[in-house]
Amino acid sequence: MASESTARWDLILVGGGLQNGLIALATLAARPDAKVLLIEKADALGGNHTWSFHLESIPPEARAWFEPLIEHRWPRYAVKFPDLSRTLEHAYATCSSERFAAIVATRMGGAPNAELRLGVEVVEVGPSGVRTGGGEVIEGRLVVDARGPRERATSDSGYQKFVGLEVELEAPIDDQVALLMDATVPQRDAIAGQPSAGAFRFVYVLPFSPTRALVEDTYFANDATLDIAGVRARVMAYLGDRGMRVVRVLREEHGVLPMPWRAAGPVSRKNPLVAGYRGGWFHPATGYSVPVALRLACFIAARAPEDVFGAEFDRLADGHEKEARFGHLLNELLFTATEPAQRWKVFRHFYELPDDVTLRFYGMELTAADKRKMFLRRPPPGVNFLKAMRILPSWGLR
Ligand SMILES: Cc1cc2nc3c(=O)[nH]c(=O)nc-3n(C[C@H](O)[C@H](O)[C@H](O)COP(=O)(O)OP(=O)(O)OC[C@H]3O[C@@H](n4cnc5c(N)ncnc54)[C@H](O)[C@@H]3O)c2cc1C
User: Fold this and answer.
1) Ligand 1: does its nearest atom lie under 6 Å from the Cβ of 104?
2) Pairwise CA distance, residues 203 & 218, whole Å
3) Does 56 or 1 have the greater pLDDT score?
4) What is the SS3 assignment for 325?
5) For domain 5-72+93-150+262-318, which architecture applies?
6) pLDDT tens-digit series, residues 152-162
7) Is the CB of 362 inside a 6 Å radius of any atom of ligand 1?
């Protein structure tokens, strides 16, 4: 990084998405006068997401500052499979990008030494600072690179693909239960012109009010192709088949998230810290990252920039990598040893486990006993036994 330095910051956060927004909030909650610079290339923070999470995955030390991000919450949630319906008495919640952007911007704007720069692209990231597309060099004590998922082409990954429509409904529905997984829908992929292509498919319904809901059609598939128009039509058909008449579509989101069975590389343990999705701080078997992004944010906020790395960080990173490896194993079994039409059975099996195991699974906090319960005594129903037996030894698990 060249010399003409214009500022010196405690933290330079590159990318204004979920990970760095949480780091900014956690840091300013711990040290309101911290010198935090958040740089985002887009004109707004947070992209176009609805982030969902289990309320129990919010660590106690984060609850006060995290609370304003919670836009909708449900006291319970349900899952449905062809031969099993369950309601879990655990609270579930969401935060929209708009809410996230407003809260982070307000918090940054109210902090005496924090600055938010929107519409600024960072082109170079180093241990002592960054360079922007405009050629400005900015120096900082800790640089966090959370620029979101890298483009990656790999054969060692399945994909989570979805199209979600936020709709206004004519007649009221029960808005006290979030439907996390309705896997009673036909099990097929979302590739135009390939009606026989298979995938694990489920619909996700988050009622934001009696007449407003986010309805997302999701596919766990080996192919990354997503026929957005076709899936949009399937969402409308799902609602129509259930007698839910749509008055209008308010918003749409879609995504294709990798579900890898090999890590892109080890977790970064030095400055600049590669964090968020880019740094592997996400759940490989769900694509979700709120719990782990929060864990990392709280860790950084509790320390001076120079004290972030060391034995404690190694413990955090080791724990995360261990949990991620288990997620990779699940992905390998799901995408290489389970016929697409049978995949729903794997998830049905998980939802037959005690609720606390399910919660720890989403939070990447499984115990060794949980893992035994989930998988290791025998592969779950639907997984091809012989293929699983070839995969498990390579993970040192049999
Ligand atoms: C549509 C969608 C829905 C999702 N829903 C959930 C969910 O319900 N629950 C959940 O836990 N996870 C969800 N995820 C997965 C995961 O939580 C998100 O991908 C999450 O946003 C990752 O956070 P991040 O901060 O690593 O990256 P991002 O949130 O993607 O943020 C990266 C930011 O960096 C910016 N940037 C990129 N390059 C530069 C640059 N050169 N200079 C400056 N800025 C740059 C980008 O514009 C972006 O704003 C979802 C993902 C998608 C795509």
Assistant:
1) no
2) 6
3) 56
4) helix
5) 3-Layer(bba) Sandwich (3.50)
6) 656 789 999 99
7) no
